[in-house]
Amino acid sequence: xxxxxxxxxxxxxxxxxxxxxxxxxxxxxxxxxxxxxxxxxxxxxxxxxxxxxxxxxxxxxxxxxxxxxxxxxxxxxxxxxxxxxxxxxxxxxxxxxxxxxxxxxxxxxxxxxxxxxxxxxxxxxxxxxxxxxxxxxxxxxxxxxxxxxxxxxxxxxxxxxxxxxxxxxxxxxxxxxxxxxxxxxxxxxxxxxxxxxxxxxxxxxxxxxxxxxxxxxxxxxxxxxxxxxxxxxxxxxxxxxxxxxxxxxxxxxxxxxxxxxxxxxxxxxxxxxxxxxxxxxxxxxxxxxxxxxxxxxxxxxxxxxxxxxxxxxxxx
Length: 316
Description:
alpha/beta, Nucleotidyltransferase, domain 5, 2 domains, disordered C terminus
């Protein structure tokens, strides 16, 4: 119905001590307050507020969450990495339906990389690794653009980090469909020739390993200011693009993937869909042809269950 975003880049505002910086915490409070005001203005009767990897892994997360609650009245529920992967997988399953068969889903965020795979709405594999584009930019790159030595070293390091994941995915066999979500993958697909967003969500968009390899050679020599001028790249995320590209390529190589299909639905839609399932009392795919098992419904995110009893409410 309505989409409104504030870019915070919290994964890049983690101090050397592992805390979310004071400035980052203040920006988070302001963003939550702004969202709360928008919800009231738009007549929302229910607000669900969730935090992901940057807040989850900050050493001072408890203090930050209390600050948000005290100053805004909104209690942020922190999703685990596994729940991020599960809910993103749910969104992709609902988008493509049961005919997609065994799905392998990848999502690169600011702080983490989520990977999920399975035949049902509840994935058989749901993994979260600290390999987000913002995190890699903050911890591995000191130059803009990154130096060749930084790129080479990071590529080798990512290969090591993804070795265990590759073995887990291989045990589940070949996927029928490989799907990627998130702004990072959408930007990479656009830069390699996919249709623009104004073509609509149902246009098929893909990202190939060959195109990605060519793209890296091109963007690795560009500053973030230059990258921000490219179509499909937002100025707020341009500086993360090199890191996101390396993570995407390393993941595709580790999992022996030649092509990804871009899905317009991701974590946000997964959260909304699961909440609707709770309201309706049963689960359905987008096609409505098959119900989920009660096993899937009872295995929902604990954070979502807790949120049912702790949601902030506003009446229009």
